[in-house]
Structure formats: C-alpha cells, structure tokens
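SAMPLE LOG
Freezer: B-3
Tube label: C17
Construct: single chain, 104 aa
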Amino acid sequence: DPGQIAEMSRALPEGGELHWRLTMPPEHKGDGLVPFLIQWEPGEHPSETSPAGCRLVGLSAEHPHPEPIDRMLVALGVGLDVVEAGRPALIATIECPLGTVVLT
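STRUCTURE (predicted):
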C-alpha cells in the first residue's frame, strides 16, 4: 500500500507554481529505501528548469534485511538491487564538472 494521495504545490522564485500529487505511506516502511510515488501535474517539469551540470550515474542500496525491501521495490516496479549491509543506506554516484561525487 503506497498510502493516501496528497495534492501539493509550491511557489517558484520567478513566479508561477509547481503542482504535484504524491503518496503518503501510513508508516515509514523500508527504512528510507522505498520511494514514495509522485505525479507532476501539467506544466513545466522541474527537471526542465533545474540547473544543469551534474548527472546521476549510479544508485545502489544496502540494508541489514534486504529481502523485505526487495519485495516492496518489486511491487512498485523499482529496479534497484539491495545488498546486505550493517545499516540501511542509499548510495548515489553523481558526475559533476569537477569530478565524481558519491553521496551516502
């Protein structure tokens, strides 16, 4: 169950607004590794107006008990492998103009 749907918006610095709907899970399941779902409403997508220069080149996940997390991700259609580790973690590898950065 991805949770109830909430309608949200925010003002843009240059004027106008962004509108989206997202799910609000009843509990924080997945220790931060299972994403909420978002649907951007008509209008410019934030990726079209965000600053350029960096690119996500890798995303991985770790968890002490990866099997339940894998099942939740599969149910959502998310293709992310979760490996066993001592604590939950998302690891993003980002390619930037000054080099590669790994965020954990």
